[in-house]
Design brief:
The chain is an alpha+beta fold and 478 residues long. It has 17 helices and 19 strands. It has a five-stranded antiparallel sheet with strand order 5-6-10-8-9. A four-stranded mixed sheet has the order 1-2-4-3. A four-stranded antiparallel sheet has the order 13-14-12-15, sandwiched between helices. Helix 13 runs antiparallel to helix 15. The chain starts with a helix and ends in a 16-residue tail after the last helix. Bound molecules: flavin-adenine dinucleotide (FAD), (2R)-2-hydroxypentanedioic acid and zinc ion.
Length: 478
């Protein structure tokens, strides 16, 4: 697709398949789809395509495969690694899933739901609740991210400790392959050992192997008892000990365990209206923890209070506030979920989404923050995240008044130091946000060569013409 004429032919093909209204070419209409949430990339596109059915997606991919047009699937466009943004060539198309947004089936007796890829995550949570069930995937972006995007990034979020990553909630998938064939494993079975687990290939593939058009998802019993506390812990090692103590004391009812540094409390209270300090004193590290149970009769508040008292006696914490009602619980969570936004308002930040064996988190933070303090005087460390999963957002913000361009110029150097340290601790340089375009080189650097070779083999087998999200995840197109 390099000439004016072939672009015109392509656009005519898209309009034939979708009708003119679902083919956006006007720059203003396309603009929101051509950049990523973090504004790291600014791409261009031949068109933004908005199919309204699986058949239309299939016809589009068959057409793009035949004409070698790169296809960039896009969900809610909240991804952190530039995976949903087209490159700068203007020769790719963005394929928006927004119009595939129906819940096809919901079966409370089977604890399952079949949803199209464009369903907004928060809507699925509500659909489940309406039939007295629970869909546990929960992230700060749930009001705009889509289930197709969640599965394509294998999203994590706030409840992984209890319920697992997005992958763990999938019973089946419907996927349009690069050549337009439709793979449907949309069954609602919990047991199915008939051959290779093909659906797993597309989960976390970030749109490089096919387009997810629908998913069959697990539902769970709805939590009916919840206890939540905001706790000032005596450091990260103490937080890990507290997690173990709570798991034991509660019969493993801990569903969230989030680490929050004081700087994050300061940023959210300063930048986000209506957020207040949960505790009177000032402490370096906090944990937002939650116990939940599907048994209404479980006395979780008493259980949590007694466990926290033991932890205080054992020197793990200095203070704690138990949410007394739903309003207070929501306020604690609002603080936690607003940290990325508060960080964004504060100014440029260098983000590192890393995972480590949980017992090594404290030493990692100590070593990495010592390096930051010694080498980046303009930086403020904002390290927070899903401690219960060993997942830290080891983010570094520019100190107020720092020249943003000068600060961001350190990104590669800081990333190398942080990621090398993560690797030396046996960790991962992408815990939950994926690879996208941002971490393509990092994947090559840290993944064992055999893993990369196998990924390339799979890519070649499923997408021999390299049309699916070119340049994302894997460096070289087939
Ligand atoms: P997009 O950004 O549109 O796309 C992401 C990738 O998936 C791209 O590569 C795209 O090509 C591909 N894709 C999208 N839809 C499809 C499809 N149907 N078929 C094939 N490929 C597709 N992430 C976490 O894991 N945990 C968090 O706690 C978390 N919190 C966040 C909080 C905020 C405030 C924000 C802004 C983001 C957060 N994220 C988090 C990141 C982001 O929300 C997730 O990665 C989310 O899963 C992306 O979904 P999306 O629909 O926006 O996907
Ligand atoms: C979260 O946990 C998200 O809030 C965003 O994954 C993390 O902004 C970040 O670095
Ligand atoms: Zn996160």
């Amino acid at each position: 697709m390099t000439t004016e004429v072939t672009s015109r032919v392509a656009l005519a093909g898209f309009r034939r398949i979708l009708g003119a209204d679902a083919v956006l070419t006007d720059h203003e209409a396309m603009a929101p789809c051509l950049t990523d949430h973090r504004k790291l990339y600014e791409g261009a596109a031949l068109a933004v395509l908005r199919p309204g059915s699986v058949e239309e997606v299939a016809q589009l991919l068959a057409f793009c495969n035949g004409t070698r047009i790169g296809v960039v699937p896009q969900g809610g466009n909240t991804g952190y690694c530039g995976g949903a943004t087209p490159d700068e060539s203007g020769r790719q198309v963005v394929l928006s899933l927004a119009r595939l947004a129906h819940v096809r089936r919901i079966d409370p007796a089977n604890y399952s739901l079949v949803a199209e890829a464009g369903c907004i995550l928060a809507n699925l949570q509500r659909e489940a609740e309406a039939v007295d069930r629970f869909f546990p995937l929960s992230l700060g972006s749930e009001g705009s991210c889509q289930i197709g995007g969640n599965l394509s990034t294998n999203a994590g979020g706030l409840n992984v400790l209890r319920y697992g990553m997005a992958r763990d909630l999938v019973l089946g998938l419907e996927v349009v392959l690069a050549d337009g064939r439709v793979l449907s494993t949309l069954g609602e079975l919990r047991k199915d050992n008939t051959g290779y687990d093909l659906k797993s290939l597309f989960i976390g593939a970030e749109g490089t192997l096919g387009v997810i058009t629908a998913a069959s998802l697990k539902l769970l019993p709805r939590p009916r008892a919840i206890a939540t506390a905001f706790v000032a812990v005596r450091g990260i090692a103490a937080a890990v000990d507290l997690l173990n103590l709570l798991r034991e004391a509660s019969g493993d009812r801990v569903s969230s365990f989030e680490l929050i540094p004081h700087i994050a409390v300061e940023l959210t209270t300063r930048h986000i209206p209506g957020i207040a300090e949960p505790l009177a004193g000032e402490f370096p590290w906090y944990v937002l923890c939650e116990l939940s149970s599907s048994r209404a009769a479980d006395a979780l508040d008493a259980m949590l209070e007694s466990a926290l008292r033991d932890a205080m006696d054992g020197g793990l914490l200095d203070d704690a506030a138990l949410a007394q009602n739903e309003r207070q619980r929501a306020a604690f969570w609002r603080l936690r979920e607003s940290i990325p936004e508060a960080q964004r308002i504060e100014g440029p930040s260098l983000k590192h989404d890393v995972a480590l064996p949980i017992g090594k988190l404290a030493r990692f933070v100590e070593e990495a923050s010592t390096w930051i303090a010694a080498n980046l005087p303009d930086a403020v460390l904002v390290a927070y995240g899903h401690l219960g999963d060993g997942n830290l957002h080891f983010n570094v913000n520019a100190r107020a008044g720092t020249d943003p361009l000068r600060f961001v110029a350190h990104a590669d150097e800081v990333q190398r130091v942080v990621h090398d340290l993560v690797a030396s601790f046996g960790g991962s340089v992408s815990a939950e946000h994926g690879i996208g375009r941002l971490k393509v080189d990092e994947l090559v650097r840290y993944a064992p060569p055999v893993e990369i070779e196998l990924m390339q083999d799979i890519k070649r087998a499923l997408d021999p013409n390299g049309i699916m999200n070119p340049g994302k995840v894997l460096k070289v197109a087939p």
